[in-house]
Specification:
Length: 383
């Protein structure tokens, strides 16, 4: 999960150490970091880490050392936010095409990327991969889900290009595939590379399940772990599952996890080790899907904030279910930001060595992003 706690130089620091120390102590087999950015402007949030040069190596090394101390695998999630970069960071973000994201007026009209811009992004991914490996992290994840840049290239809604980077799914996936190939060259054959991919964008005209399966087939033998999620800022499927409340399939209701039905489809076309994240909460269900070989790894996010103290016992089978916190304001328009803001605030508290604050109200949290982005981005600008 994105940490939003870097210092003014966009480096990891003691807060990352506090947080990852606690996460490493849970007994999780693999921790995947939050978005670590390849570009200082196009970040998912103010407070993201940016890996611009080898000058950051000591800070990255210190972070990796704490996070891997219990022999935990810790993989760096590498990302570029594209059009989902907020106006606090830039009024004119880069994207595959000039298709603006309309959400609370927070995102500017993008400029379509030139060939030079695309090459700079590829170089940024390679640089970040190389430095993360040198720092002692044990693997990488390329973020190609949730509507960020690589996911924008995959979607026909946001990618209207007519050159070799747009059009057919083969062309739309070219940037992701090129980055994988180039990254592999610098990190070597034994270093794990994972890709986080949407099962679909859950939007009419966006990446479909069929296309996602085609991309997965193209990745066969090229990566070490596939993580499935879904949605974009326009449809937050990764938070709430893909379907509308009214027509949630009976099978999904019974099967708690959001993208689990897609696992069967992936297994039918691919041998890639498979991780799915979203909604897993009960010991029995997690073990069922593993035993039935529907998945190789179960992914979890929010319980590592609100149920952090219970994770060890959960993994030992002593706690059958991690209770979900329902973060709702009752006002539909602000519920997305209330939930995201709530978890973000509690995560930062953990990173600061504080305990969870049960008094944080969802309605206050809905303004947290605005407040945090404004404050952090101003601090970063003033250096
Ligand atoms: C505070 C917070 C930050 C997140 N940051 C990221 C991120 O940086 N990268 C990512 O791929 N997903 C991110 N997610 C999404 C989660 O990884 C996950 O897909 C989602 O929360 C569903 O899983 P869960 O039901 O176990 O929480 C974030 C979620 C939360 C709550």
């Amino acid at each position: 999960m994105t940490e939003r706690i870097s210092n003014k130089k966009l480096e990891p620091n003691e807060k990352h150490h506090q947080l990852y120390q606690k996460w490493a102590e849970t007994g999780a087999g693999l921790l995947i970091t939050g978005n670590v950015m390849v570009d200082p402007v196009h970040r998912e949030s103010a407070g993201n880490v940016y890996v611009g040069s080898e000058n950051i190596l000591p800070e990255m090394q210190a972070w990796a050392k704490v996070a891997t101390q219990h022999e935990t695998q810790v993989w760096v999630q590498i990302s570029h936010a594209g059009r989902q970069t907020s106006k606090f960071l830039t009024a004119r973000p880069l994207a595959p095409s000039e298709v603006q994201l309309h959400k609370m007026g927070l995102f500017g009209k993008p400029r379509a990327m030139s060939e030079e811009d695309i090459q700079a992004v590829i170089a940024g991914f390679i640089r970040t991969a190389k430095i993360s490996q040198a720092a002692g992290f044990t693997g990488l994840q390329l973020h190609s889900a949730h509507g960020y840049l690589l996911s924008q290239f995959l979607s026909p809604i946001t990618n209207r290009r007519t050159d070799k980077w747009g059009g057919t799914i083969e062309n739309r996936s070219r940037l992701l595939r090129t980055i994988i190939e180039e990254t592999r060259k610098v990190v070597g054959p034994a270093f794990p590379i994972s890709v986080k991919l949407n099962s679909s964008d859950f939007q009419r005209g966006g990446l479909t399940e069929e296309e996602s399966l085609q991309v997965i087939q193209m990745l066969e033998g090229k990566i070490d772990l596939l993580e499935i999620s879904g949605g974009t800022y326009e449809k937050l499927a990764f938070f709430e599952g893909g379907e509308n409340e009214a027509d949630v399939k009976e099978s999904t209701k019974q099967r708690e996890a959001y993208f689990i039905d897609f696992a069967t489809k992936v297994r039918a076309v691919s041998k890639l080790p498979l991780l799915i994240t979203g909604g897993f909460r009960s010991f029995e269900f997690c073990n069922q899907v593993l035993e039935k070989n529907e998945l190789d790894l179960v992914g979890m996010a929010r319980p590592f904030i609100t149920n952090l103290k219970e994770i060890r016992d959960f993994l030992d089978g002593k706690i059958p279910k991690l209770k979900d916190l329902v973060v709702k304001t009752g006002i539909k328009m602000v519920d997305d930001s209330a939930e995201g803001g709530y978890y973000a605030r509690q995560l930062i508290r953990i990173a600061e060595g504080k305990v969870l604050d049960p008094k944080i109200r969802p309605i206050q949290s809905s303004f947290f992003f605005l407040y945090h982005e404004l404050k952090k981005s101003l601090q970063e600008r003033m250096g």
